[in-house]
Write a structure and sequence with these properties.
Elements (H helix, E strand, L loop, with lengths): L1 E8 L9 H16 L3 E6 L7 E6 L2 E6 L8 E9 L3 H9 L8 E6 L5
Antiparallel strand pairs: 1-5, 1-6, 2-5, 3-4
């Protein structure tokens, strides 16, 4: 099964992305790739660069920033291919951002 590990952090509580944090992410990414678990993953630009889009009564509305106003921001993700949720949670717990924020793990829906 595939699981999306969404990385949420509170910018007020998270140290700046410096060399040590980058090194931690590079090492984690290398391990998860070598294990054959990683299918995809990327970091996202800051939430200040977000634009939300919605359609209401046939009109397209765009809003600067994220849809939800929360303390924790979505900073990136990993798409993991694991045998089960327990394995996905073990890998998610190793994501460096788990030390400062929350990793939300959700199974991918397979249609058909």
């Amino acid at each position: 099964m595939q699981y999306m590990a969404l990385i949420y952090t509170d910018p007020a509580l998270t140290p700046p992305m410096g060399k040590a944090m980058n090194d931690d992410y590079f090492a984690y990414t290398r391990r998860v790739k070598e294990a054959g678990v990683m299918k995809a993953g990327d970091a996202l630009q800051p939430v200040t660069t977000a634009t939300s889009v919605r359609v209401r009564d046939g009109k397209v509305e765009t809003i600067d920033g994220p849809f939800a106003d929360t303390k924790e921001h979505l900073g990136g993700y990993y798409l993991l291919d694991c045998a089960d949720l327990d394995e996905a949670l073990k890998w998610a717990a190793q994501i460096p951002g788990a030390k400062y924020g929350t990793i939300e793990v959700r199974p991918i829906v397979v249609f058909g």
